[in-house]
Amino acid sequence: MKSCYLPAVLLAMAMFAVAPFRLMGAPDILVANATPGVLLSYKIFYYHVPSAMVMFLSAFVCGVASAVYLFKNRLAADRLAAAAAELVVVFGLIVLVTGPIWARKAWGVWWQWDARLTSTLLLWMIFMAYLLVRRFGGQGAEKLSAAMAVFGMANVPFVYVSVNIWRTIHPTTQVIPTLAPGMRGVFWFCVLSFVVLFGLLLALRARLEQRRADVERLYLLADEE
Fold it and tell me: What's the distance, Cα to Cα, between the start and end of the chain in Å?
């Protein structure tokens, strides 16, 4: 397993180094709901949307692993859930930073309290709460935080379809399927780059949790002696 880390790191570095050069050739388009007649660069789209997709993926990994821990009491699943929760927060922060930057240019405001933006913020706060409960919740915090992760995972489909159910300034889910041919390849390359980074960080963070558990077990053995 350890032999895979270096190639994965090199691959992630190479893909993120190549991405800006691929973005240069991607076309600009007229953004929906933008100021009439204003042609805006869509380049931040290639970072904002993939980071949101990976945030959702992290939430699903955390929720499924937490469910396994709740019903099977497998500690390895709990460690994986903790690692994935941190990545929800990291990639969610990227989403919440790049989104307002894009919105300010496209819509003239930094933030709109519409369904997609508000539900994304709430999803991010759920997993922030997961980490806080896990760290400071005391005895039984792992079980409580695991239940919160399952609840957070259940909110992901709601966040995704919210733009299709309520009137919102945010573009609908039909944007990705209708991408222009010149954008499609660049977009999926960026998505793959984020997924590779996610897989690498998840594996490293889960391994760190395993090492931490090993150290705590050694301390307990030393105290018993």
Answer: 33
